[in-house]
């Protein structure tokens, strides 16, 4: 027999709005990771905060004085009711500011951004190589057309391969363009 969800489980998935005061860098980090990896901010936020072990470790290490010195901006996020409950409970239990728990939880994304920035740099390098390869392929295509004609099976196969390469290159360019957000962080 399959386990059945309880009304409490289902209510825990309901979306609620919660406002936090966070540094501009934390807000930007959430946005960058969400856009770059194609993850909804709600899912990302829920993932960070529902990790009870990490949240407890953060709560034990929060330095309220240092946190209060950071310039912060008020930002409203959509999160699950379960995430908000977990955050509130941890905040009360460890006497840690809710905003600080969120701020430090988001800082866990910084290594992800660093790794993705390096991957983005490598993708740009591969795109340059691919563009060079495509330019050579187009020269071969023109040569095969002039030597063999446009009805020749070799020309037709090469033309098909080049169309696929051009489409792939265009898709990769779009992905890299979307990833430029990570370069400036």
Throw out a few tags for this protein.
mainly alpha, 185 residues, elongated, single chain, two-stranded antiparallel sheet
How would you characterize this protein structure?
This protein has 9 helices and 2 strands. It is 75% helix and 9% strand. The chain has a two-stranded antiparallel ribbon. The model has no long low-confidence stretch (mean pLDDT 89). The chain folds into 2 domains: 7-108; 117-183. The chain is elongated, with a radius of gyration of 25 Å. The two termini are 49 Å apart.
Structural class: mainly alpha
What is the overall silhouette? Answer: elongated
Flag low-confidence runs: none
Mean of all residue-level pLDDT scores: 89
User: Secondary-structure element order, as H and E?
Assistant: HEHHHHEHHHH
Topology:
Layout: H1 7-12, E1 15-22, H2 24-37, H3 41-50, H4 52-61, H5 64-68, E2 73-80, H6 81-94, H7 98-107, H8 110-148, H9 153-183
Antiparallel strand pairs: 1-2
Helix pairs in contact: 2-8, 2-9, 3-6, 4-6, 4-7, 8-9
Quick structural gist:
With 185 residues, the protein is mainly alpha-helical. The chain is built from nine helices and two strands, in the order αβααααβαααα.
């Amino acid at each position: 027999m399959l386990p059945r969800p309880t009304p409490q489980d289902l209510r825990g998935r309901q979306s609620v709005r919660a406002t936090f005061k966070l540094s501009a860098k934390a807000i930007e980090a959430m946005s960058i990771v969400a856009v770059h990896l194609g993850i909804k901010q709600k899912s990302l936020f829920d993932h960070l905060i529902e990790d009870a072990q990490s949240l407890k470790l953060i709560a034990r290490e929060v330095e309220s004085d240092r946190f209060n010195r950071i310039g912060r901006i008020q930002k409203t996020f959509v999160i699950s009711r379960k995430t908000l409950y977990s955050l509130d409970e941890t905040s009360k239990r460890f006497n840690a500011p809710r905003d600080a728990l969120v701020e430090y939880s988001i800082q866990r994304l910084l290594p992800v951004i660093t790794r993705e920035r390096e991957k983005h740099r490598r993708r740009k390098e591969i795109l340059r190589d691919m563009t060079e390869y495509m330019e050579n392929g187009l020269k071969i295509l023109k040569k095969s057309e002039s030597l063999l004609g446009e009805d020749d099976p070799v020309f037709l196969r090469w033309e098909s391969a080049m169309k696929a390469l051009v489409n792939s290159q265009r898709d990769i360019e779009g992905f890299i363009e979307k990833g430029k957000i990570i370069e400036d962080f």
